[in-house]
Amino acid sequence: xxxxxxxxxxxxxxxxxxxxxxxxxxxxxxxxxxxxxxxxxxxxxxxxxxxxxxxxxxxxxxxxxxxxxxxxxxxxxxxxxxxxxxxxxxxxxxxxxxxxxxxxxxxxxxxxxxxxxxxxxxxxxxxxxxxxxxxxxxxxxxxxxxxxxxxxxxxxxxxxxxxxxxxxxxxxxxxxxxxxxxxxxxxxxxxxxxxxxxxxxxxxxxxxxxxxxxxxxxxxxxxxxxxxxxxxxxxxxxxxxxxxxxxxxxxxxxxxxxxxxxxxxxxxxxxxxxxxxxxxxxxxxxxxxxxxxxxxxxxxxxxxxxxxxxxxxxxxxxxxxxxxxxxxxxxxxxxxxxxxxxxxxxxxxxxxxxxxxxxxxxxxxxxxxxxxxxxxxxxxxxxxxxxxxxxxxxxxxxxxxxxxxxxxxxxxxxxxxxxxxxxxxxxxxxxxxxxxxxxxxxxxxxxxxxxxxxxxxxxxxxxxxxxxxxxxxxxxxxxxxxxxxxxxxxxxxxxxxxxxxxxxxxxxxxxxxxxxxxxxxxxxxxxxxxxxxxxxxxxxxxxxxxxxxxxxxxxxxxxxxxxxxxxx
Length: 568
What we know:
By secondary structure, the chain is mainly alpha-helical. Among the domains are: about 1-30; about 35-320 and about 380-460, Hydantoin permease (Orthogonal Bundle), CATH 1.10.4160. Helices cover about 75% and strands about 0% of the residues. The chain is built from 25 helices and two strands. It has helices spanning about 5-20, 20-35, 35-45, 45-60, 65-90, 95-100, 105-135, 145-165, 170-200, 205-210, 225-230, 235-255, 260-275, 280-310, 315-320, 330-345, 360-365, 370-380, 385-395, 395-430, 435-445, 455-485, 490-495, 500-525, 545-565; strands at about 530-535, 540. The longest helix is centred in the C-terminal third of the chain and has 35 residues, at about 395-430. The chain starts with a helix and ends with a helix.
């Protein structure tokens, strides 16, 4: 018996013993055997989750504490269905979708996943480099340090990914490393909230109230901002529309980072690579719950709480930077003058305002009513460094910077590793070869182009981020619909297809998850543009959201029609 067969035999013995071990004993055994769910946790706790949760707290306080847990629960429902279909058939889902539904949907899923892997690796390297330079080792804040850090991150990620292709022991070591990284991220942000609570800076009553959904805030400003907006008088309607649009964007960003298109690709292939089958279907759902829901909800909730306690409804930190000559080039200062520039243009579109932040522009902004200047400062997006800075008086400079630096670095490194891993799976499907060995390693190193992130991400973001997020957002409902159809296919699942009450429950849950994901996708894509691009003397703006929605509708129609035709 070889190494992998021996490991599989030990796992089956443990699974059999779990059936008679009682609730706690079963949970302990399942926790020991868990793995693919933690990989999902490692990718979802990335820079996107950090930025989304942070600005959600800044802009909406704790009013939307329910949003990210709900998004994750819905995502886990769909991922559980994906695991059920995959483990019941034992087949690679790309091939199943291609043959049983439509090649159009299968290739769309694959291409969107690979695009997301490559593009989103860039900001992760930038985020990890920034965490080291700004929070952990400021002495490396120079060009040489940037090269050293970026290359070190690539080497670390490459070594860990290499373990994954070195047999069952390598996979186990890989999973242990990822579990440790996820644990570090959660504990780092959990420690911040504990520190804030000990200083009396957290209102837990308000936080628990925010766990009760109020869907009205999807379309109107939250109370703290609404009160300030009311003070702007004749411009209150304009500010209301602006804030409502910003809240829409941050809600979509926070919701979308819970489960992304590449996560739907990772899960089935990581389970098959681990040798899981029908016996592991219950383990798979438990694995997703403990490895994905728990870390994500804890980490993002802690970031929302910390950001809300320090920034929501407050302008103090932005005002302080406005008064500091050394901070005039800071992102927060630029954003502040950007909002006020929009306000001035609303009053007089023909007025010559000068360059944003110039003495002439600053003088014009200073003439605006205090209420307008207050709301502009409250809307400014803060980053992890700004949050670490405001926490220094509460928890100490070294503690604040170190805790945030470790947490953010853990997010970046774990996400880089998983993006590389997913791309290896997708690359193997592209070539129609087994997802292992040399081909998987080659595919895994394609996103290593992300090492350029610290050098080019800011300039590349407008060109790359918009189309990638649009394609990924459009493809997520398609992935969900595909597995919803497969869950109801007797020709695919055979006797494993749920029947009676179980089938009804699965369909209610999956239709709910698919419906909400589709609404979020359409809501986010509608009106989305890309550009402007200078072509000759014309500025061209591409209605990329409308194009994506039309493509989404056509692909869904083709897929559903093809599925039912094949079922007949």
